[in-house]
Each structure stands twice: as C-alpha cells, then as structure tokens.
Amino acid sequence: MKKNWRSSALFAYSLAILAFLYLPLLILTLYSFNDSRINAVWTGFTFKWYIALLHNQRVLEALTNSLMIAAVSTFVSTILGTMAALALNRYTYKYKAVINGLLYLPILIPEIVMGLSLLVLFSQTSVPLGKVTLILAHITFCLSFVIITVNARLEGMHKDLEQAASDLYATPWQTFRYITFPLALPGIVAGALIAFTLSIDDFVISFFVAGPNSTTLPLYVYAMVKRGISPEINALSTVLMFATISLIIIAQVLQPQHTSSKKEKE
Amino acid sequence: MRKGKLLVAPAISWLIFFFGVPMLIVIAVSFAARTPYGQVIFNFTFANYQRFLEPLYIRIFVDTVFTALVTTLITFCMGYPLAYSISKLPHKWQQPGLILVMIPFWINFLIRSYAWVVILRSQGLINTLLLKLGWITQPLPLLYNDYAVMLGMVYALLPFMVLPIYVSIEQLDHRLLEAASDLGAKPFTAFRKVTFPLTLPGVAAGSILVFISSLGMFVVPDVMGGAKSALIGNLIQNQFLSARDWPFGSSLSIVLAVLALVLIVLYYKAIQKQEGGTNNEEKLA
Amino acid sequence: MKKRIRLALVGLFTIALLVMGCGSNTAKQSVTNEKGEKQVLNLFSWADNFSPEVLAAFEKKYNCKINYDVFANNEELLAKIQAGGAQYDLIQPSDYMVSTMVKLNLLEKLDKTKIPNMKNIVKPLQAPSYDPTGDYSVIYTWGMTGIVYNKKYITETPTSWADLWNPEYKGRVILLNDSREVFGMALKKNGFSNNSTNKDQLDKAFADLKTLAPSILAYDTDTIKQKFIAEEAWIGTMWSGDASFTYKDNKNIGFVIPKEGTLIWADTFAIPKGAKNKELAEKFINFMYEPKISAQNYEYIGYNDPNEKAREFHSKEFLSDPMLKVAVNDVKQGEWLKDIGDGLTLYDRYWTELKTIK
C-alpha cells in the first residue's frame, strides 16, 4: 500500500516534468496556426504557414541537410565513441589519465572557439567548406558526449559475466558479441541519442564550417532572427514532432510481444 | 593491452587532428596581440591573461560558476526521478519513453526559447491565468531576471542529465534491492544505501555534462534574461563577434576550460570517496 | 534484448534511407552544376532578404542557379571571409563592415560599367561615407535608429533621447542589444558623435547609461518587435524598418527620430576577393535595381527602397508608410557608424560593466 503511494507520487512528479518539457512545444504548435507573420500575439487562425512550407524549397533543403548530417555524424561518433569507452574501461595502458583528459576536453571549450579554430584548420588545409566539413565538425563535438555516456554504463556493469564467458573459453569476439555488447547497448543508444540531439540543433560550430549549398535548419532559423522567424518554422516543427511521435507509436504497436525480456537481462 | 590501443586509437587520432591541432592554434592566439582591425599578430604577450584578473571579469566567472552549479543541482533534482520512472516502465516502453523525453530537444532551441517568452511574459500565459483567477493584481515579473535564465538553462540541459542516469539505473540488479528489503531496510534506506551509490557513475556523467554545458551558454541569458546579465559565455561571444578581440576571447576560453577541468577532477575524487565509503559500509553491514 | 536491437536496427534503417534519399538528391544537383550547363551564383546574405519571385526571375533570365546561404551577424561574415575558403560570389556587409573589409583588402572593385542601374539610387545614398567613391559597394537596404513608443502608455510624443530617462517608464524601456548602438545613443544624447573614442565623452555616456540601467526591461535586437507588439515594453530604441513591421501588428506604435540626431545604417552588395563568378554577381546587382524588379522586391521585404526610378511602380500603401517616410525625411539627421578600431576595447569594457549592474 505504502509502496504504491510512493510510486504514484514519483510517477506524478515525472509527468509534471514531462509537461514542463512539452509546454513550450504546445505554444509553438498553437502559434503555427497564427495569422501574424511576426507571431507576437494571436491574431487569427490560419493554415497558410503549412501551405507556404510545402512550397518553401529552402527550408526543406535545410531540413534534409540537417537530417543527413545528423544521421552520419551520429553513426560515426557512436561507433568511435563506443570503442573508445570500451578501451578506457576494460584495458589499462600508459598515460591513461592523459588520454582520458584529452577525450573530455572538447566539451570544455566554448563552441565559438571550436567553430573558429576548425574554420582556420579547414581553410589552412584547403578543405572546401560544405557538408563534408560540417560532418567532420559534428563528429568531433559529439564524440566526447558519446564516450562519457557509454562510459557511465560500462562503469556500473558487472564484470562477472564477461569473466565467466572467458572462463568458458569464449573467444574475445564472442564475449563481446554475446555479453558485453548487449549489456552496453542501452548506453550506446543513449550516447547516440545525445549525439543526434547535439548535431540536429547545433548552430555556432556549424555556422563557421558551412559552405555554399550546405545550410542546415538551425543556420537558416538563426539567420531569420533579424527579420523575425517565420511561422513556417513553427509549422515545420509541429509536423516533425507529430511525425516522430507517431513513428514511435507505430513501431511499438508493430513490435511482436515478448515476455522474456526481463529474464534475458538477468 | 594492444586491443585497448586499437580500440581507442581511432577516437584519439580523430580528436588529435580535429581538436588538438585547432586547439594549438587557439593557445597560440591567446598569447598573441591584435591589430586595430582585429587581425591577430603573433607578438608573445601575457596581457590577455592579465586582463582576466580584473575584478570585473573575476566576478563574471564567479557568477557563471554559481549559475552553473545551481542549474546542475536543479536538473539533478528533476532528472533523477524522471530517469528512475522511465526505468520502472514496462520494458517495452522504456526506450519510447526515453525518446519522448528527447523529442523536444530536436526542435530548434531558439523557437522553444521564444515559446517560453510567450508563456512567461507580463501578458503571457501564466500571468494571464493568475490574473483571471484573481490570485494576483499585478503581472509578476517572471522574465528578464536570473531566475528566468536558470529556468531556461535547466530546460535546455535536462536530457544530458536524464540519459546517463537512466543508463545506470537500468542496469541495476534488482535482487540487491530485494535483498535489502528482505533484511528489513526501509525503501528510502534501501535507495540511499543501495540504489543511489550504484547509480553514481550516471549521476557523475550527467552532472558533468550539464555543468560544463551551462558554463558556455549565451543564448539563454540573451533571450530569457533580456541580455541583462553578463555570463562568461556572453563575454567570450562578444570578444569574437563584437569587440573583435580574438586573443582575449581565446585566453578566456582557455581559463574557462582549465577551471572546468579542475572542478571535474575534484568532483570525480569526491564521488570515488563516496563510492569507497558506501562499499565499506556495505561490508560492515 | 532482441527487441532493443530490432528497434535500433529499425532506427538505423530509416536514417540510412533518409541519407540515401537526400544524398542522391544533392548528388544530382551538383552534377548539373559541374557539367557547366548552368552557372551558379553563391550568394551569402541575411535570411529572407529577397523576394523569392525576384530570385526566380533572375535564375530564369540568366539561366543560372542561385545558392542562397545566410549569416546573422556582420562579424560572423567577416570571420568567414577572412579565413578564406568560403567560395561566395556576392555578400551583403553592412556600412561600417564595408570600410573594414576594404581596409583588410577583402573586397573586389566593382565594374561600374556593368552596373548601369546604380544611377537609379537616390543621390545622398550613392556615395555614403563608408565607401565614398562607391567603388566597392552598392546600397541595398537602409534605415535609421529612432525612438519607438506606444501611444497608449506614452501620451507625450518623445522628442529627445533624454525622454528614455523618464522615471515613469521604469521597467518598460528596451535598448538594442549592441554596444555601438547603445553607446552611440548615449553619446548623441550628450551632443557627441556616435563614433567618439574620446574617453571623457564615453565616460559621460557611460555614467548616463548607468542611471538608465534600472529602468531597462531588456536589451534586445532580435525579438524587440514582439516585445512592442505584445506591449511588454513601452518605449525604446529601434530601427525604422522594424518599426514599420511593428506598426503593422500594433497600430498604437509611434516612431520618431530624436532632435539630437541618430545613427543611419545600410546593408549593401559587395563582391569578395577571389569570387569565381564576379560577372554574374554584377549582373545580379544590376538586375536588382531595375525599377520594376526593385519595386516588387522592396514591397516584399518591406524596407526603404533607395531606387528613385522605382517609385512609380510602388503601391500607395508602401509609399505612405509612416515609418518608412520618417526615415526618408530625416536622412540628414543620421550619422554613419565608422569602424573605430582599437576604440572598441573601451566600448566592450563598459558594455560588459553595464551588464553586471543589478
């Protein structure tokens, strides 16, 4: 009884936090139907921003650029970061502390400094600015975040299972494939989520390393600030938000029921 | 041993090339001077570091660290329970739950911040509601102050706390908790002595990510704080984008990075002590 | 566990599809570019700064493609052009940035014979002080900083910058979030030049601003319009073009140029050194000043049209806009910002200090 009371209080608190996260999105959705271009106060209901959005080639191009860059940099940084985290956690080597420190450094440097210094690097090595430099930069700033997140998982992981596997003559690969990887997977997924989140909404670093024809959505939105961000962006955000949520629900519903997952974990 | 090197090599070489090399440039610039039109000239000088010692800039640093600490504390108080609840969801719904928490952060940060302005301003959602209910007679000044800045930061950084904590709670061995309660531990005691210490790696990672990220924030103080407060992020931004003083901006960034590194090392030491401490207690019990 | 893997795989697969989708898209585009069937104009400008129809008309007329990339701040533009490696053909620096870029040798001289329509521009704006010979830049949009106020709350029409200091407006004043704008205003209030680097004059301006600080609701450039439309703020400093936008959504808004004079600004067209397609860039500039095109363009972007010949093509509404008219009548009151070089350090020092006042 008491336990029930506790967990429902916790659940209510969490729902409140979720509401806190979604409250601005509610406003944003509402304002995507607002008639005013400047979008300061409510002036009337309209669908026109959604229609305008369909014809706005520039926004749609920026969106595909953003998604492509985020997908590639998430993929690469997650793989590199997971490998590094595994090494940090499982093996000892010389100068481990120094190497650890270096891995954490990129998140300590302000974005603008990183953006400018990368710009100098690319222009000195004559790498033409564009999508490629954007991806290189995004991987660089995502990497540390992935390492920290995956590491948090590995640190709390019991090493007995791996020990047992190798006692049973599993090859290192088998141990990794059947023991370490599945156990670390939630950490890897979390790392990838963080990387994706950082990449999809990065502005400062992206600005400096972007070139012709590689405008991303945040670049586009920030540049609109001087004239006032068009409600088309609200409309786009609304569409993206609902599309993502529906995709998740569909994926959940389509998934076959499993009851044994708890067992697998133990 | 060789495997360790092979695994860590790609990330390290990547960072050496795309981060280490540019950073050498930044360090060099931080000791350089500049022309009236903002071009960097490499005359070795300590002036940029000396300038930082002015009381004005020290105060901004102190204010920034304080804001970052409070932000970290609040995000922890919100993030831990949220992560804990997600880990208590049926297994199938855990990952969707996690993604649900992340979705708001895939929407452009600027327009989310502007939405907060609409909620909090004097004619905003909350004030209108409170006025209608008759709870207040004058709109509350909810925006353009330090509280609004902290709210904005907490809002922006919450996922960095939730994800690492979730990741360590999720792998918690529930048999330990059962054992604790079998031995007569009250739920809160069990949480304090078993759950919390075991999830410390996640707490540490989350706190560090939030703390560091909040040190560099500059959009939130501008939008939510009405650009009335000077935080180190704004100061650095100004050196590059209005004062045209790259050397001073670079030296500020390096001081900031070193300071953050020191704080992180101290924090990790404290955490390790805590972990060691609870282990001993467990042994005694 | 398997479920999770499956979920991750589904995610990856969707992402892969997306990547392939846009990958092939962009690949196709660049192929046609490289084949040279179509010329490309790489334009680097503020967002939303052209009528899309006008851009399309140019693309059609000259059988080319415009790559329109955007920046949000002059200093960002400078950093990027200075670093090199950014292959733009046409950029849009503001007034003082033009002179900075000329001094840093970052701009190409314009071939005026290729831009005959330049003569359509009103006389006072043909050779502004930031580019006195007009060799490097052509003015595009321009405006002035003035006092914006809401007639509902402020019954007496402001005439002087000093009116911002009225204690009745405490907590309702907004200043532009820019050190040169704010100190320029305070300098003008005291009868000095807004390009002053004289320490005594700046000290005086700073002392004044310190007494204004407690009255200030916010420093804001980007969302200042919204703050006045929603009537969060009553009085403040604003650009004429923004005032015109604000007026459209809130008819209580008034705008005046104070008697002490003010700042005048402009965004221009300029061609960076090493531009690959200078000729097309000049064609573009010339195209933008064709009277009919120019009228269509400025009606869309809603700023002052500097093109004299375009007047007959403009709508009555545009020509009678009170905010735009204010700016035209008061050009003589305006002083262009100059690049003050080292002087900026003192501005920044005071600016930072101003922000630490609680």
Automatic annotation (TrEMBL), chain A:
It comes from bioreactor metagenome. Its main location: membrane. InterPro entries: Bact_Polyamine_Transport, MetI-like, MetI-like_sf. Residues 63-251 form the ABC transmembrane type-1 domain. PROSITE patterns: ABC_TM1 (PS50928). The lineage of its organism: unclassified sequences, metagenomes, ecological metagenomes. It is found in: Cell membrane. It is a multi-pass membrane protein. GO terms for cellular component: plasma membrane. Keywords: Cell membrane, Membrane, Transmembrane, Transmembrane helix, Transport. GO terms for biological process: transmembrane transport. The chain crosses the membrane at residues 12-33, 67-89, 101-122, 134-154, 175-197, 203-223, 235-254. Belongs to the binding-protein-dependent transport system permease family. CysTW subfamily. This is Inner membrane ABC transporter permease protein YdcV.
Automatic annotation (TrEMBL), chain B:
CDD domains: TM_PBP2. It is a multi-pass membrane protein. InterPro entries: MetI-like (IPR000515), MetI-like_sf (IPR035906). PROSITE patterns: ABC_TM1. It holds the Pfam family BPD_transp_1. GO terms for biological process: transmembrane transport. It is found in: Cell membrane. The chain crosses the membrane at residues 56-86, 98-119, 147-167, 198-220, 248-268. Keywords: Cell membrane, Membrane, Transmembrane, Transmembrane helix, Transport. PANTHER family: INNER MEMBRANE ABC TRANSPORTER PERMEASE PROTEIN YDCU-RELATED (PTHR42929:SF1), INNER MEMBRANE ABC TRANSPORTER PERMEASE PROTEIN YDCU-RELATED-RELATED (PTHR42929). Belongs to the binding-protein-dependent transport system permease family. CysTW subfamily. This is Spermidine/putrescine transport system permease protein PotB.
